[in-house]
Amino acid sequence: MTTDSNSSSSESDDQNPNSNIDQSLDAIENQLASISMSSHPPTATSLDEDVVDEENEEEEEEEEVEEEKLVSSVNGSLNEEIVAAQAKVDSIEHEQHIETNCKPGSSSSSFAWRDTTEAEPPLSPSSSGYAGERGSTSGGDDDDIGEVEHDGVLGQWVSGKRHPDEDDASVSWRKRKKHFFILSHSGKPIYSRYGDEHKLAGFSATLQAIISFVENGGDRVKLVRAGKHQVVFLVKGPIYLVCISCTEEPYESLKGQLELLYGQLILILTKSVNRCFEKNPKFDMTSLLGGTDAVFSSLIHSFSWNPATFLHAYSCLPLAYTTRQAVGAILQDVAGSGILFALLMCKHKVISLVGAQKASLHPDDILLLSNFITSSESFRTSESFSPICLPRYNPMAFLYGYVHYFDVDTYLILLTTSSDAFYNLKDSRIRIETVLLKSNVLSEVQRSMLDGGMRIEDLPVDPTSRAGPMYPHLGLPRPATDSSGRIRDAHVGIGGPAGLWHFIYRSIYHDQFVASEFSAPINSSRQQKRLYRAYQRLYSSMHDKGMGPYKTQFRRDENYVLLSWVTQDFELYAAFDPLADKALAIKTCNRVCQWVKNVENEIFLLGASPFSW
Amino acid sequence: MANMSHNNLNAKLVLLGDMGAGKSSLVIRFVKGQFLEFQESTIGAAFFSQTLAVNNATVKFEIWDTAGQERYHSLAPMYYRGAAAAIIVFDITSTDSFERAKKWVQELQKQGNPNMVMALAGNKADLEDKRKVTAEEARIYAEENGLFFMETSAKTAVNVNDMFYEIAKRLPRAQTSQNPAGMVLVDRPAEGSRSSCCA
Questions:
Q1: What is the pLDDT of residue B195?
Q2: Distance CA A311, CA A363 (A)
Q3: CB pairs under 8 A between A and B
Q4: Which pTM value belongs to this model?
Q5: Closest CA in chain B for residue A424
């Protein structure tokens, strides 16, 4: 592997580029092929997938281990295919995909089997939730102590580095469904989702070789397909990001995830980190990121549950209009005095936010900022003052962030350009806190957390008959939270009216979205993740630049009926029972839209104030 | 020193040291009386305050617990600027962290407030069997550089409060309560406080 890493720069490039990319791709193919060949005897064949699913459900949610093994070819035929692909490489236009198709069953030597034996008692016992600051330098002794019990409940996901003991030689490492790597242009590992970065130096070098080989040809590699696996590349100056995934997510989604990963890196270090590479191309960046494993792993985790990661919109905690106005007013009040942005948030949801004149906050920055803060335990200990860069606002410069938690979930962020504003910001926080306590905002936030958001079972039968929010919580009388007393539509199966299971509504004008709460039958985290991925595909197909964009889409498969509807004002994505009636589903979507509009001022932050955007 | 009848003193104190040396653990032990086996990395710097009564006076410490990661080094001046006291923390089981501590001392001697009270804390004293830095070595270094030295354990609480108490005692009394925000004077005449160290 490591020998291949030099191939890109060698002098033989001119004479025989084919052999070089052949080697590089070969190297990665070998990696992937050996993944499937190394672990299990092929005798363990076709176990019913449901069984595997069930067993895996016991597992911690994010442990994405392949159930189904990669379909692969032996090297002989593989090489031919790569050579064939190479012909394409030579002729591709700028930024085209390289595909090395190893079609399932395309060669007699292909084989596939399912993983039966290892659906898994925890792969390695040391999945430590302790993201220790020891990082790479000191005190490794403690690393294996913090053993954590995982279970399938979404809310109990534990952040931090997983399986730090693994490397690319580990069977378990190779079976992970979705890898993320950050490396430098000299091939030095910077971050790996699984395994120890330092032990992955050889693997990183291989990835670097592939990228730089194609770059030397004046081209750029974006995607390599190898059987079920997609290898997605993103080059950001001296920093390379790679995702290797067999989750069948669309290329655009994976690329978007790499963009966010890069954004998170910039949030921590700013883009001026590039200068370190100008001074010293072999610069080792891992030490600069010490203690941030939890930040990255939590972001990657959000790629499988938080629609904000692909919608590029943020969501608000549902609150009475007047309550949110009161929060906005006090934030506005302090925002004048040297504060660039003030945000009050509850977990990943916005309660209110304001920006100084002309300053606007991108939804992606909100996502990265809240991920950074909620995943770093240290912010909860006391008030903090930390340099933070907002990549969409200004990737080159640090802002200074004052962070204070009012309770377990609710926190205030005040961002300023001045590095000595701490005591100012602290005073502002005290003023804000006084107002929030006096007007009971914090307890209303707590109540909203308990009440949750919109529930499909509560979809009003005739939403037009009601004008405006007359009820305390999302247009509903409070007792309705007790599901026993609920009046259901005539067409209910499981789920809501007309077989509605779930929806996401994105308001384009507000840059915000609202998603209904999960309810039966989308109960388990596994089902939620599957639906999430289905939405992701739907979103990506609606926004496909090649063929789209589309206005409506109705698709039925064995899992769902998915309906999406994009207008100038909003985008609606809804999931129904796979047997749902089309006409009724459309009618239901209209009702959902009407419902959302009726409660709009409770679920969205309506930017009315002159300072905000 | 006679005029400290009933003084309220605000003193900015900064903790510096390698990551994982136990800065946050020391502060949390001092401020909250707690200890976490797995203390998460500090981001940027965390702010705490705690008041001590020393000889008829109260000292309100405004404590900056800085992050030890390399990426924050260039930002350290933001936190130690104007500090009346600094605790430089190292981990007695790591020679690297001791070397890092020496670098911090140098930086403070060059850039910091010249009257700053500096303490060197050899933390994790409970891990005697993993010790890499001898108490003698650290003590000699501290004496040579005008720091006072203590071995501490945030885990067992040994010497933690004593250290803050000792700092409070050594703070020059010139700076009185007219410092509302805890920013400490930098341009006072030197009083030779740096020459004092543990006997």
A1: 40
A2: 9
A3: 113
A4: 0.78
A5: B181
